[in-house]
Amino acid sequence: MKKGVVQWLLMFALVAVIVPGAAYVRDMKQAYARVQGASRSVSSPFGEIEYTHGGAGIPVLVIHGGGGGFDQGQILAQAVLGEEFHWVTPSRFGYLGSAMPEGATWDEQAHAYAHLLDHLGLERVAVLALSQGGASAFLFAVLYPERVSSLSCLSCGAAHSTEELQAEADQKGKMLAAIFSYDLPYWAVSKAFRQQFMGLMGADKDVVASLTPGQLEIVTQVIDYMNPVAPRAAGATFDNQARLPGERVADITAPVLIVHAKDDTLQLYHNAEFAAANIPGAELLSFETGGHLLMAIEQDPIRNAVQDFISSHASPAGSAP
Questions:
Q1: How far apart, in whole angstroms, are the C-alpha atoms of residue 151 and residue 309?
Q2: Which letter, b or e, does each residue of 122-157 get, where b requires 16 or more Cβ atoms within 10 Å of its Cβ?
Q3: Angle at which helices 2-35 and 183-192 pack, to 10 degrees?
Q4: Is residue 86 part of a domain?
Q5: How many distinct structural domains can be found in the chain?
Q6: CATH classification at residue 103
Q7: Phi, then psi, of 264 in degrees rounded to 5
Q8: pLDDT by residue (tens digit) across 7-31?
Q9: If you ran DSSP here, which 8-state letter would residue 248 be given?
């Protein structure tokens, strides 16, 4: 009897190891296949710049957040812009097929955007940025005012805060960067502890619990599309270490729309308040709840606000080849 029980326990343990292992191998195979060959690239003084583009209409440079790449940019473009705009989605430094220059800065990332737009024949664009993509977006507007018709920032980082909550947010950023080091840890944590991982991404328990099926679908896609993380690790590390633009945002002359949730625990609401207070004429669209999952939770009002903002400030520009 005991021998039979032990055999069953051993079989159960073996299955418990094999099944997740098989799922991991399957998911990684699909993830790598999804990003390989799905983009274009252009050589630049900053190394290869990976990008995709689609849609038609007003050109928009879409800048992804932490843990992203061109594929996260595509999710953002589809969620907020649709096919009514001509979106360009580069992978930032160290993400997927884009190079990670030694000693890189946000200023250099902004110069890389300009190089990409030159390659595409786009003189002037609207800019849409998410989360940690905000730093280079702000500086692109500072360094190339003549090329930015408008700047829309969703849950973006702008300036460090001295609030106690900032230490907690920084710790979450460090934990995310650590998980992002290798494919297996990220895959395992994001699968086995999905709700807790959403909390690490900047949403409290109430926000996570209130997600509708449609909202959960968007959040799930964002999380799953961070796989594979190994080719994004250098970019995530840079994101976590580079300095936010701070007072330099005051030099922005383009029209700016700031969209942020007051309960965001990853990019604190302080960022929105700072940007709105220091950028001349900036507009602030705030939400009481939504955390750092705001794009998914308030998709319709954000989509309408951003599209109207971009359209109202658009100017003629070239189109990509």
A1: 9
A2: bebbbbbbbbbbbbbbbbbbbbbeebbbbbbbbbbb
A3: 110
A4: yes
A5: 1
A6: 3.40.50.1820
A7: -65, 125
A8: 433 433 433 444 467 899 999 999 9
A9: G
Closest residue by Cα to residue 284 from 159, 163, 153: 153
Q: Provide DSSP, 36-81.
A: TTS-EEE--TTS-EEEEEE--SEEEEEE--TT--HHHHHHHHHHHT
Strand partners of residue 283: 257
Would you state the pLDDT for residue 22?
85
Confirm whether 24 is domain-assigned: no
Residue 42 in tokens: 């252009």
C-alpha to C-alpha distance for 310 and 86, rounded to whole angstroms: 12
* Confidence at residue 316, expressed as pLDDT on a 0 to 100 scale: 56
In a domain, 26, yes or no: no
CA pair distance 3, 281, nearest whole angstrom: 76
**How far does Cα 208 stand from its chain's mean position?**
19
Q: Which of 3-17, 80-94, 168-182, 213-227 has the lowest mean pLDDT?
A: 3-17
Contacts of 67 (CB under 8 A, 6+ apart): 176, 180, 226, 229, 232, 236
How far, in Å, CA of 297 to CA of 284, rounded? 18
Q: First-to-last CA distance in the chain?
A: 73
The DSSP annotation for 255-302 comes to -EEEEEETT-SSS-HHHHHHHHHHSTT-EEEEESS-GGGHHHHTHHHH
pLDDT (tens digit, 9 = 90+) per residue, 263-317? Answer: 998 899 999 999 999 999 999 999 999 999 999 999 999 999 999 999 999 975 4
Q: Which residue has the tokens 């602030």?
A: 284
Q: Would you state the pLDDT for residue 176?
A: 78
- For residue 314, the 8-state DSSP code is -
Verify cis geometry, omega within 30 degrees of 0, for the bond prior to 228: yes
Report yes or no on 12 lying in a domain.
no
Q: How far apart are CA 66 and CA 178, in angstroms?
A: 13
Average pLDDT of the residues in 222-240: 95
Domain that holds residue 179: 37-312
Residue with tokens 């250099």, as numbered in its chain: 108
